[in-house]
Amino acid sequence: MVFFSRMDFSQGSLFGYIEDLQELTIIERPVRRSLKTPEEIERLTVDEELNDIERAVYLLSSGQDIQGTSVVANLPVLMRQNPAETLRRVLPKIREVLHVAGVEMQLTAAVSFLTVLQDESVSIHTYSHSFLHIILQNLEHRDAGVSNAWLETLLAVIEALPKETIRHEILNPLVSKAQISQTLQSRLVSCKIMGKLAYKFEAHIIKREILPLVKSLCQDVEYEVRTCMCRQLEHIAQGIGTELTKTVVLPELVELARDEGSSVRLAAFETLVNLLDMFDADDRSQTVLPLVKSFCEKSFKADESILVSLSFHLGKLCNGLYGIFTPEQHLRFLEFYKKLSTLGLQQENGHNDNQLQLQTLEQEKKYISVRKNCAYNFPAMIVFVDPKNFHLELYSIFFCLCHDPEVPVRYTMAISFYEVAKLLNSGVYTIHKELVTLLQDESLEVLDALVGHLPEILELMTTNGGENSGSESKLLSIPDLIPALTTAEQRAATSLKWRTHEKLLQKYACLPHIISSDQIYYRFLHRMLTIILTNNVLPVQKAAARTLCVYLRYNRKQEQRHEVIQKLIEQLGQGKSYWNRLRFLDTCEFIMELFSKSFFCKYFFLPVLELTHDPVANVRMKLCYLLPKVKSTLKIPSDKHLLQQLELCIRKLLCQEKDKDVLTIVKRTVLELDRMDISLDAFQKRFYENDLLDQEKERQEHLLLEMEQLEKEKQQSEGRSTNVNDKIFEKKRRDNKTSSVLAKSMTLSVSGSSSGTSAGKEDKKSKLVRSQSFSTQALHPKYSNIDKCPKYLFAY
C-alpha cells in the first residue's frame, strides 16, 4: 500500500512502469486436463462381468477408500438381494476393513448396520450372530463421533434382541467395561447402555446385576461419568419400580445434587423433576422440596449455571409439589417465578442503569433464555395460582412478557396465548389488549405464531368476553380488534414472508363469526379482492379468493352481495390480464365448493363459459380442466338450456381450437364429460348425500333472504306510533305496502302469505323467529371445520 501511495503517474514515470511490467516473465504452470491420471483410472476400473457380490468383495479387497465406503453404504441393498452370499463373503471383508477404516467409512457402516436391522432382511438370531460383534468391537473407537454412532446403533439393536443374547453378549462384558480401570469413553458408553437395559429385565435382575454398577458409576472420579450416569437414573427408576427408586435411586440423586460439579448438580435437578410422579408425599416434602429450595436460593447467588434449566422446569415443579406447599411456600415460589420473568430487564424498569453494561454477552443470552422459559411455563403457572386469581397474581407478568424487548420471548407468548385463553375461560376478557398488542408486533415471527390458533382465540374472546359478549355486541368486547387485524395483514403483505401472509388470509375466514357483516364488507372484503388483483404470489391470491368467498357467503345484505359478484365477473372474469382471468376460475372453484349449485348456475355459469373464447391458451386449458366440475352443478330439466350452452362451447372448442396442447385436453375432457351423469331435480340414490347437502345450502340461501325481508318489516313495525288512530292508519298503509312487496318478491321464491289475516301474521312471526334463531346459530359455529358446519347463504 505504501508503494502505491508514492507512485508518480506523470508521463515519464508511467512509461517506466510499463517497461518494468514488460520485463516480467510469466511462469507457465502445467495444466491438468483430467481429474484422474491413466494409472488412477486403471486402478478404479472394475470388470463389468463381475456380479454385485464379486464386485463388492473386489472393491473391499483392492479398491480405494471411497469405493469401499460405497460398498458399505450399499450393504442393505445386498442383504435384500442375496443375504446368504452377503453374509458369507461381503460381511467378513467389511469386518477386516473397519479395523483400519477412516471416520467416513465407520459412520457409513454404523448407519448401514442399523438399516439392515430395520429392514428385517435376516432374522434377529442371524443378525446378532453376524453383526453384533462388529458393533461391539467399534464402540470404543478413538473418535467420539464414530463411537456415538455405533452406540446409537447398539441401543436400537438392544430393543430387538432377546434377553439371553443381551445377558451373554452385552450385560456380562459390561461389568468389566464399567470398572474404574477402563477408559473414560468405555465408562460413558457403559452408563448409556445400562439406561437402555433397565427396560429389558425384571426388577430383581436389575437390582442384582445392574444397580451395583450404577452406584459405582455415580461415584466415579470423572464428573462426565457422574453426569452421564445421573441422566440415566430416570430410566433405571422406571425399570425397578417405586419401592427401589425410593430406597436406591433417591439417595443417589440427593448426593449428586450436592456434587462439586455444576453439570452433575444440573443433571440431578432435572432427573428429580422428571421423577416427581414416582415419589410419595413424604419424599416430596422431606427430601425433594428442601433440595429444590436450595437450588432456587443458589441460582441467584452462587450457581447461575442451573438458572436456565430451573426456569424451564419451574412450571412442572410447582404443579408437581402443589399439594405439599404451605401458603408461605406457595407465595415464595410464585415470587421466584415473577423474579425470573423480568430477569435482565432492570434497565428497562428504571433501576441499575449501569448493570447491563457490566453484563457479558453470555449473561444476556442466558437471561433471554430464562424469560423465554418463563413464557413457556406461563400456562402451568396459571394452573398453579388458579385462573380465578390470574388478574391479581399474574396479569402484570403476562403484560411484561407480551411486551418483552426480545422476539423469542414474545414469540413463545404468542404460541402459548391460546392455552392461556382456554385456561382463563370466562376471564379471557382481561387479555384482550395483549391480543391486540401481539397482532401489531413488529416481528412477523410473533404474528405467525399467534395466527396459528387465531380463530379459536377469537371465538373464546367473543363467547366468554364478559358482559359485552353476545351476538348483538360481540364487536364491543374487543374494540381495537379490527384495526389490529388490518394492520397485521398489511404488514404481512409488505414483507417477503408470503407464507405468513397466506396463513393469515386463511385464518381470517373465521371473521364472519367474530365481527359484523358490515365491518367485514367495508374493512376486509374489498381488501381480499385487491389482493387477488395485485398480489404476485399465487398461494396468497388463492387464499384471498377463498376467504372472499366465505365473506360473500356470510354477507347479510343482498345489495352488497350483488356488487361483489359484479366486481368478480368484471374485474377478474373479464379482466385485461390473463392472470386475473385464471384467478377468476380459481374463485369459481371455491364458489362451487361453498355455495349451492343453483347459485353458481345463476351467477357464474355463463361467465365461465365465455372464457372458451379467451385469446390466451393457458386460460382455455384451465377452463377445460374445470368443465367437469361445472357440468356437475347442472340439474335436469331445470338447467337444460345451460347444458345446451355447455355442449355448444365444447363443440366450438373441438372445431376451432388451434393450440394442440389445449386440443388434447379438450378431447380428454369430452370423454370425461360423456361418462358423467347429471343430477336430476328429483333425488337419486347414487347422488343422495350430495343432493342432500346441496338442498341444505339452497334452503339456507332462501332462509337468509327471508330473514332480511322480515327484519325490514319488523323495523318498520317498531316505528309505529302508540296512538290508536295512528295504529289503524299505519296498519292500512302497511298492508298496502306488504302486498306490493310480496308481488315483487315472487321471483325471489320467498314463501309467505300476502294476506293481512291473523293467520298470515302468525306465519310471518314464526318465520321471523326461525330466521333469527338461524342467524344466531350461524354466527357462532366452531371454526375447526368451517365448511361442514351449518351456514347461511343468500338467495338469488
From TrEMBL:
Composition bias type Basic and acidic residues, residue spans: 727-737
Annotated region (Disordered), positions in chain: 711-775
Matches recorded under PROSITE patterns: HEAT_REPEAT
InterPro entries for this protein: ARM-like, ARM-type_fold, HEAT_type_2, PPP4R4
GO MF, one example: protein phosphatase regulator activity
Subcellular location: Cytoplasm
Gene Ontology CC, one term: protein serine/threonine phosphatase complex
Extent of the HEAT repeats: 210-247, 249-287
Compositional bias ranges of the Low complexity kind: 745-758
Subunit structure: Serine/threonine-protein phosphatase 4 (PP4) occurs in different assemblies of the catalytic and one or more regulatory subunits. Component of the PP4 complex PPP4C-PPP4R4.
Annotated PANTHER family: PROTEIN PHOSPHATASE 4 REGULATORY SUBUNIT 4 PPP4R4, SERINE_THREONINE-PROTEIN PHOSPHATASE 4 REGULATORY SUBUNIT 4
Purpose of the protein: Putative regulatory subunit of serine/threonine-protein phosphatase 4.
Name of this protein: Serine/threonine-protein phosphatase 4 regulatory subunit 4
